[in-house]
Amino acid sequence: MQTRRLGRTGHRSSIAILGGAAYWEDGDPDAVAASFHAALDAGVNHLDIAPSYGAAERLVGPHVPAVRDRLFVACKTTRRNRDGVRAQLEESLRILGCDRFDLYQAHAVTDMDELDRRADAFSAILRARDEGLTNLVGVTGHDLGAPKAHAEAVRRYDLDTVMFPVNPRLWADPAYRADALELLDLCAERNVGVMAIKAAARRPWGDGPRTATTWYEPYTTAADLERGIRFTLSVPGVHAFCTPGDMRLLPTVLEIAERFQPVDLERAPVEVAHEELIFPMR
């Protein structure tokens, strides 16, 4: 699998980041182990995980120490106060068998108001970097306000990475695309690593049965998944994408990432412009 330099972090990340949300459900530990190691065998060298991802930390944790020397481990927190952030960071380190994280992030910073509410959290995360509990720090977030909020976060704080939604449907929205391009330009200027989420997102769940563990309805056919993934990885300034939060989609998604080739950026947004946006979250 191709790798790209994740901005100033210096880490050459696999273009597919293993999204720990795929292990949300408290399922079969053997199936989780097989999925986790299959991702590594495919060339993935970067794990994205969080306490808010259900059973993920507990299920993945036992497998991390044996591969720690070849796995970039990124974790995150949704907490707002300093003590809460520190306690959650230390608990995640324990569960995942790490003495430090490669990257620790303020998670779910979705708009400017939330960014303001997380000032103490950023202070705690930056202090953890100073103390050696994490090598790098960043910000993540869903929703339409994420790019603007993340750009301001990069201006306010000494951040190493951002993680925000990039997919063809969002690029068909002129306002979102403008905010995202502004963020990408800022990250390029400051050499900040950029990770994308929601490459496989299709639309909000309707009234029918939910057939995946993602909070949105994902694309499921190989052709649709390839369109979203190739588009996302072709956007200038995007270094890698997080695999979707459903273990059953991982084999197809990883196969697509292994054979990635860039595409023209104008076609895919037109093809999916009729789809409903997955945001705002509800």
The gyration radius over C-alpha positions equals 17 Å
CATH topology: TIM Barrel
* Distance from first to last alpha carbon: 35 Å
Tell me, briefly, the overall form: globular
Give the helix tally: 11
Secondary-structure element string: EEEHEHEHEHHEHEHHEEEHEHH
Average pLDDT rating = 97
Strand order of the largest sheet: 3-4-5-6-7-8-9-12
CATH class descriptor:
Alpha Beta
Structural class: alpha/beta
Question: How does CATH name the architecture?
Answer: Alpha-Beta Barrel
How helix-rich are the residues, as a percent range? 25-40%
Uncertain stretches of 5 or more adjacent residues = none
Strand-residue fraction?
A: 15-25%
